[in-house]
Amino acid sequence: MAAMGPLGDSYALRCVSDLPPPFRPVFGFRYFNSLQSECFPVCFLSDVNMVVSAPTGSGKTVLFELCILRLLSRFLTTDWRFNLLKGTQKTIYIAPMKALVQEKMRDWKVKLGSLGINCLEMTGDSEFFNKKAIHDSDLILTTPEKFDSMSRHGVRDGGLGFFSDIALVLIDEVHLLNDPRGAALEAVVSRIKMLSRLGNMKSAPLANVRFIAVSATISNAEDIAEWLLAPPEGIKRFGEEMRPVKLTTKVLGYAPAKNDFLFERRLQSFIFDILMQHSRGKSALVFCSTRKGAQEAAQCLSQTAGSLGYSNPFMKSMQQYEHLREASLTCSDKQLQSCIVHGVGFHNGGLCLKDRSLVEGLFLKGDLQILCTTNTLAHGINLPAHTVVIKSTQFFNKEKGSYVEYERSMVLQMCGRAGRPPFDDTGTVVIMTRRETVHLYENLLSGCEMVESQLLPCAVEHLNAEIVQLTVSDITLAIEWLKCSYLYIRIKKNPEHYGIKRGIPRDLLEKQMRDICVEKIHELGEYGLIWTDGDGFSLKPLEPGRLMTKFYLKFDTMKLIVKASACCSLEDLLHIICRSAEISWIQLRRNEKKTLNDINSDKEGRLRFHVVSENGKKKKRIQTREDKIFVLVNDCLTGDPLMHDLSLNQETNSICSNGCRIAKCMKEYFIYKRSYRSAINSMLLAKCLDQKLWESSLFLLKQLPGIGIVTAKALKTAGVDSFESLATADARKLESATGRNYPFGNQIKESLSSLPPKIDIQIEDAGNKQGKSTITVTLSRQSQAVRSSKQNYVDMIVGSEEDNMILFHEKIRAREFSSPYSIKLLVPCPQSARVTLKVDLIFEEHVGIDIHKKHVVSREDDFHVTKAYGTEKQKPLISLPADICLVSSRTAETSSAQPHIGRSPLSKEVCVIEDDDDANVPDKVDNMPGTRTFNNLASLEVPSFDLMLEEDNGDMQDVLFPEPTKAECRSATSNTIFDHIRKKSRDFPTLMLSKSMDSSYEPLILKKMKTSRGQFNLDQGILHANEVTPMDSEHSELRVSPTNTAEKCRRILSRTSEKSRSLFAEKVYSPFEKSKSLSRIPDENSVQFADRRGSLSEKSKSLSRIPDENSVQFAVRTDSLSEKTKILWTAADENSQQFGGKRDSPSEKSKILMRPPDDGTLQF
User: Fold this and answer.
1) What is the CATH number of domain 16-242?
2) Cα(746)–Cα(729) distance, rounded to whole angstroms?
3) Architecture of domain 463-550
């Protein structure tokens, strides 16, 4: 071994002793190899970014370790003491596969543990993260998807605080960028680059973050270096000459079979000959795509070798045979036992730990020459061999339900197992694939593969994630984010690959990039996932966008959720999941149709929902993939599925796992939208898919540990089919019913402690005030809370059944909430209406134990709206705006020409708002039997303007108010007029929906009339009924607001000011018209809205109106026509309605009546 040379000598091997003393124990050798020695100055003596392209097995992992030690050298003192400040300088290691992460975790935990380095593995499907553990960690090992998901979840709860402490990012197998999964890697690296440029990060380690990326041999390492901002000295490329063992590669192409499954099975017949040709009697690994494939390949080789007897090529000596025979006797797997005696074994996750350890030991010793295994061994235990055979480059993808090509990084990892440095000087790799893919793997092994970006197809999802995380807050930053991606690098060099014409000018290429960004933002804004300002510059996240990011959903799936109805049933939600993009890879195969048709026919009535045709009948033939998914999930949720096909079962598992995630997103979305029914059904569906059981299933006991479908059926036969019956059953009888031994009965009864405690709901009505009822909901834990590792979260929802609205939602822990726990709700309750409240406790994990309670809130008080016809002392009055037509509807037996005061059924009237624009509006009012039309609410017992004026301005009754200008009149809008009404809105309790009205009441129906010209051809005779005398003037116009709603009427009718002084008037254009307001006296036949005291000279009050173009005027006469007259003139703007009618001459005694309509308007 050459001695240590100068730093610039790339051929001299560096010694481990060149490292500071605290770091030397990390390495178990004395010298670095030639590749490591050449990279040593850049890795350990500088802080520049690096991209290293080298063959598998050349020692690239040591480069990562040198870069980690370079970062840790910041904690070295001058006397070489190492004082680590935990969590202040973080390293992120990103690898494409979980197995590779776990391998590095085991290795580095031992090597770096002596330095006190805290390593944290972040893999798996957990949705929750220990923020303290992340904060205290020094080295985080994760996959791209997990790191992306974790950073997305931590946005709202402050879980991204550790980002500022990131100082080093290690990217293993960076050629993953070329695979579909590479988009996640590209997104997280771009995010780190964006955050490092923020101004508030200047003093944080993230501002100077260092990127180290290693890869197998690729042709465009310079593009990755440009993306990671690596300088020329940071780019290191090594060929096959740097491999410690020379590798010979061979790619064999075979003709395709009828299907991929038969193709893989056919390859087994070629393995023996390949081993005879290339293994040379040395150890060999045969990589198979499935456990069953590995087992079948081992059995085939074993039978072939056993048939040769003493000529068995896998058996070298009698001593080897004796060792294998003795080892086979300790195997628990009979098939493995029969293979081992012939020198062949198999290794997969289906073996017990004892058998796996036995096989690994025999292979490492050389006694077991051939080992058939799955691809997971390529990343797990280090079991190198002289020869590696990859039987088929495809594997069955559970998520997609079909055979797909291996990821390139996986193939390279398998190839990396060939050649054992201590024992071999050469290694051999044989790849068996289809003829049409031979060139792909030849390019891969020769290093000619071009790494492209995969970000564009899913750019909208990742851009939304950046907006949610506030990394991107405007269109400029969105474009900047795109420029931080690898896509930006490659689209400039290979635009045709991304759908852009080659050879366009650079400025047009930049415009194309901006257009891509703007297009994605427009798509997000169109479906309400983000908010943009008027010019589309500013970007802000909205709740639907946050949910899509949180649950890692695709944009097409989120569009289905956003467009869903607020009243979705369970069946509707299932159809959304069946159409989701997450499971769009599932295909309907011809050989599956008969089985699916038989399940959907469901002669036994097992299924809850069926695939139906347009006429509502069950489909006889399943024709689409959505139909297939719908049948599979319904069969699964019965708890006892008929489907036992392995492939279909794998697809069903994927449907349930993805569907559960989608249902959880729908749950939170509908809670955000306050859609009660859809939210409840989403909660139920999410946990049903998780447990693979409907809440009404006969096999609910399957949720308990140790109870499968066979045991659940036995218990059901014995009459134990619920948690309650199981709790009361005798343990010995349970054992007898299931055929199990003691203490099985005690164990399953003890397992009931894993269920949430029982909770009781009490609902109390604390009374009604101002149209609102105070409801108290109390939760009480009925059973003692048992300590458990499970959280037992429960969603508490209070909803209104009539309007499908969520009034209250809270997520609590069933075992930990303070019992009793009470909440108070203020529930609006209209007069004589019913509001049905439902309180639901939906447990997050278990089905069949939810609690529901219903409570009806009603308001039946003795309030009467009394009509005062000619009484001695009237109540104060109020006028309605012209967009409301007040109709008194009486039944045939109670209608008469003269009103009867004191008759109980007739005096009890309620104002009812009808809000039907297109229905229930009569063509003619005279079609309504017994109706009378008024031009004022004279019967309502609420304060009026004229009384308030009389009280507040009593000393000014002899003074006329000055005439306002026309501009002043127009500035007084209808909103200003009714500001005096709004203060008393809660004191007017007589507004309700007509559908809830008691039939014993005589309603006053507030109809919203049509505004079309000539729609209401009223007969004047109807208007004259019941002592209503017609006016002598011309026909008036019927003017009704087209935007009247129940809520608007409630506001207008019920808000009154007791001390109103704001009076407005419209300009009257002639003295002749002004005099009309003081010279009108209602005759005996007119309808009067003031006290009559026998003569015109007595103090009386009359209400007359003088119309102007846009104004509403009130005039009240008291004492005489010439003195103490108060004129209340109220002006409305162009959009307000008009009261009153024109008079032809001042001599006419005008009556204030509603006139037959003319030109589509109504005047009072």
Assistant:
1) 3.40.50.300
2) 10
3) Orthogonal Bundle (1.10)
Q: How far is CA 186 from CA 145, 166, 472, 488, 831, in A?
A: 10, 17, 16, 11, 61
Rounded Cα–Cα distance for residues 207 and 720 (Å): 64
**Strand ranges (E), 705-792:** 759-769, 772-781
Euclidean distance between CA atoms 438 and 256, whole angstroms = 13
From CA 414, how far away is CA 384, in angstroms rounded? Answer: 10
Can you give the C-alpha Rg of the chain in angstroms? 42
Which helix or strand (DSSP H or E) is residue 254 part of?
Answer: strand 246-254
What pLDDT sits at residue 919?
38
- DSSP summary character for residue 697: -
CA–CA separation, 833 and 914 (whole Å): 14
The whole-angstrom separation of Cα 821 and Cα 351 is 51
Burial of 367 (0-12, 13-18, 19+ CB in 10 A): buried
Report the phi/psi class of residue 57: left, alpha or beta, with left for phi > 0 and alpha for psi in -120 to 50.
left
Q: Tell me which long-range contacts 584-588 makes (C-beta under 8 A, separation of at least 24).
A: 584/625, 585/397, 585/399, 585/400, 585/401, 585/402, 586/400, 586/401, 586/625, 586/628, 586/629, 586/651, 586/654, 586/655, 587/401, 587/402, 587/625, 588/622, 588/623, 588/624, 588/625, 588/627, 588/628
Contact 714, 737 (CB under 8 A): yes
Look up residue 140 and give its two tokens.
């985080």
What tokens were used for 241?
A: 């000459």
pTM of the model: 0.66
| Residues of the chain under the 70 pLDDT cut | 1-11, 125-129, 153-160, 376-382, 398-402, 421-423, 536, 785-789, 830-832, 859-1164
Q: Which CATH number does the domain 565-695 belong to among 3.10.310.40, 3.40.30.10, 1.10.3380.10, 3.40.50.10190?
A: 1.10.3380.10
Q: Counting beta carbons within 10 angstroms of the beta carbon of residue 309, is it exposed (0 to 12), middle (13 to 18) or buried (19 or more)?
A: exposed
How far apart are the C-alpha atoms of 219 and 443, rounded to whole Å? Answer: 10
Measured between alpha carbons, how far is residue 388 from residues 187, 301, 448, 744 in Å? 34, 15, 21, 48
**Tokens standing for residue 99:** 């197995």
Q: Which amino acid is at 1020?
A: Q
Closest alpha carbon to 172 in 248, 86, 65, 247 = 65
Describe the chain by its helix, strand, coil percentages, rounded to 5.
Answer: 40, 15, 45
CATH fold of 698-754: DNA polymerase; domain 1 (1.10.150)
Q: Give CA–CA dist 395/417, Å, rounded.
A: 19
Cβ-Cβ contacts under 8 Å for 570 (sequence gap 6 or more): 608, 609, 681, 684, 685
Structural tokens at position 533: 């300002």
Three-state secondary structure readout of 16-84: HHHCCHHHHHHCCCCECCHHHHHHHHHHHCCCCCEEEECCCCCCHHHHHHHHHHHHHHHHECCCCCECC
3-state secondary structure of 798: strand
Q: Residue 247 corresponds to which tokens in the numbers above?
A: 């590798």
**CATH number of the 246-446 domain:** 3.40.50.300
8 Å CB contact between 306 and 312 = yes
> Going by C-beta distance under 8 Å and a sequence separation of 6 or more, which residues neighbour residue 148?
184, 187, 188, 465
Tell me if domain 16-242 and domain 565-695 are identical in fold.
no
Buried b (16+ CB within 10 A) or exposed e, 903-929: eeebbbbbbbbbbeeeeeeeeebbeee
Q: Round to whole Å and give the CA distance between 300 and 2.
A: 49
Q: Name the H helices within 778-903.
A: none
Q: How far apart are CA 1120 and CA 1100, in angstroms?
A: 9
| DSSP secondary structure letters along 277-338 | HHTTTS-EEEEESSHHHHHHHHHHHHHHHHTTGGG-TT---HHHHHHHHHHHHT-S-HHHHH
What pLDDT, on the 0 to 100 scale, is given for residue 1083?
45
Q: Any bridge partners for residue 427, and if so which?
A: 247
Collapsed DSSP state (helix, strand, coil) of residue 273: helix
